[in-house]
Amino acid sequence: MGALTLPLGGDAALRAPGTYILIAHLAGARSIRVGRWGEFSFAAGYYLYVGSALGGLWGRLSRHLRAAKRLHWHIDALLEHARIAEIWYLPSPERLECAWAQALAGVEGLIPFEAPFGATDCHCRTHLYYAPQVPRLAACRTALPYGEALRVFRVE
Question: Model pTM?
Fold first, then answer.
C-alpha cells in the first residue's frame, strides 16, 4: 500500500473533516495481537472499521494506507495483515462515527467484533465488523445516517 493520492480530477472533499469506513480484506485466518488486549482470532474475510477524521480525511486515510507506521490505534494491528480494498467516506464536520458503528449492527451479514475495537473512547460495542463475503455498499448506504451521500475510494 502506498500513500493516498487524489483520484483523477481530484476530490478536494478528502481534505475536509469526515467519517469513514475502511473495508479491509484478510486473506487467511490468523491470530493477531491487539495491543494490551492480547491475541484475537481473525477469520478470513472482510473487516469494516468505522473511524472519524475531524482534522481532515486526507491525513488520516493516508496514514491508514501507509505500510510503515507506529502502531497507535487498534486498527493498525489488523492492517499489518489485511489489505484495504475500499474506503467509504463522507466529508462532514458532524461526528457520525458512533452513529455509523451502531447502524452497521443492523446490516444483514455483518458481525460485530467481540471486543470494543476502536471504541474505547465511547460507549459503542465496537467499531469493527466482520463479513465473510464482500460487504454490500447498497445495504450499508441504506443503514447509515447520510449514507446516500457516501463516496467510495477504491484502493489499487
Answer: 0.91
